[in-house]
Amino acid sequence: MSKHTPGPWIYARGPSGIATVAWCEDYAIGPDTGRGNPSQANYDDHGDAESDARLIAAAPELLAACRAIDKEWSEFWPEGPDGGKPPGRVFDIGKTTRQIWRGLRAAIAKATGDA
């Protein structure tokens, strides 16, 4: 599993008004860190910078939520989304829940570099 920079990540706007996602101190991601970031010269704003910044800022919490759901579901269905109904269980998970769980696990793997 890959390590990521711990949060909290925050959403902010730089001096030029372009969305930036900053961590803390002098570390920032985005086209405009307020320190003459050279990447700003190559930045093409398609109007989605603010949405991207908000998504990046929420990523650690989203990953934690996905892991919590996976852990909770795994306690009830230890064989995962592709396993059968565990002995002693009255209900099995449905087709839609299995698809959602597979997608959840794929998103976790993509976020952690395990994809």
How does the SSE layout of this entry go?
Layout: E1 10-13, E2 19-22, E3 28-29, H1 49-76, H2 95-112
Mean of residue pLDDT values: 76
Tally of alpha and pi helices? 2
Number of domains: 1
**Order of helices and strands, N to C?**
EEEHH
Task: Give a count of the beta strands, DSSP E runs of length 2 or more.
Answer: 3
Given as residue ranges, the uncertain stretches (5+ residues, pLDDT < 50) are 36-44
| Strand residue percentage | 5-15%
**Cα separation of the termini:** 10 Å
Largest sheet: 3 strands, antiparallel
Strand order of the largest sheet: 1-2-3
Radius of gyration: 19 Å
Q: Quickly give the structural class.
A: mainly alpha
- The proportion of residues forming helix, as a percent range, comes to 40-55%
Overall body shape:
elongated
Oligomeric status of the shown chains?
Answer: single chain
